[in-house]
Amino acid sequence: MAEKITLLQLQKAVGGSAAAFRSVTRLQPVGGEGDKLFPATYSEGKYATEKRRIPGEAELVDCVLLNSVQSEANHAELALKDAVDGGEIDIPVIEVDLSKTAEFRKPLANLTSLDVPHRLADAILRDSVLGDGTRFQASVHAKSWSRANLWNATPVYELCPTALLFGMWGSPDKPGGLGSKFERAYVSEVVAVDITGPKDRFGFRIDPLEARNKILLKPSDGGFSISQGKDGVKPSELNHGNILFESTNAGIRCRYAEQTTVISLGALRKLRFPQEMQNDAARDKAGRTVLAALGLCAAVLASERGTSLRSRCHLWPEAPRQWELLEVPGQAPRVFAISGEEAVALLGEAVAAAKAVGLGWMEEKLMLTPSPELLDLIQRSQEVSAADSGGGE
What we know:
Layout: E1 3-4, H1 7-15, E2 20-29, E3 49-53, E4 60-67, H2 69-85, E5 94-96, E6 111-112, H3 123-126, E7 128-129, H4 140-145, H5 154-159, H6 161-166, E8 168-170, E9 180-182, E10 186-196, E11 201-205, E12 217-220, E13 223-226, E14 243-247, E15 253-264, H7 265-268, H8 281-305, E16 307-310, E17 313-317, E18 323-326, E19 334-337, H9 340-356, E20 366-370, H10 372-388
Parallel strand pairs: 1-19, 5-20
Antiparallel strand pairs: 2-15, 2-17, 2-18, 3-4, 4-10, 5-6, 7-20, 8-9, 10-15, 11-14, 12-13, 16-17, 18-19
């Protein structure tokens, strides 16, 4: 029977020589074993395929990526965001108020440090301002973490600990690939194993109005008119009429899908959390323990939200999810089970233990508003997009 993960066990794993927590879960389509799935598509609409060897089998099998490491991290961050919004957990969050976009063509919801792609180093945060008009990149918050690195991760921990868990590369002045680099400690992906499937897909979108392609339409702003000459376009070009489609994205069938999630304790041990530039072993261990608990919490909450990746790619575990602790080489891993409720409680205990040794973080949400130039960029971009799609001037 699987053990429960306690704070003491987590502290011993982080402070010892254990390599990682690992969860390997087999999944099947919600439509049943062998039902069709649609993987993610990449450049030119292609699937990310590769051959893999299944333990105990001699032949290589075709596999395809269903959800990438980056996308899995985003799913985990959204699960944490839901937990923050629901009052289940309390972690630092930076939020950009986009209510002023209500007057734009396309209103936008607020974005947080759990939404933006480069986390704390994202340009959306950089180009937003605090309540007193100070640009975020010039604020005391940014100045604090601008010199952060592996030997002093405290400023990032205080503002955006998820950046230390999911990885970040940037600085307040040089976001998105320049500046301090923190490797991913949380790595997850979903792969379909031993795949088969048709190479092409064909079909019709049937128009209930039965608009005919022999009639030509002359597009105009916000509508069209019937063309009397040869200067028009087919109704199908304006999404009227029956539309024939063909695609190489015909979906796949697989023996099973597999989700592999790893929380690297080795990566977390590289992080130090000094106070006033003085090393403190107790703070280091406490900070690493919080991040490990945060990773477990993110993974478990994301799993409980369900694995609905996209249209026609909804998966269901074959068995309850379990975690393994890779503790001693050559020995079988210790097996743990943990629910979302237990993971939330474990995170709370770890945060409290860190505060007890002087390692705390931002407890109030940091609110930003877009700078005037960022608002202008958003508005102009929407106008260009509308014009390019025929909906603008």
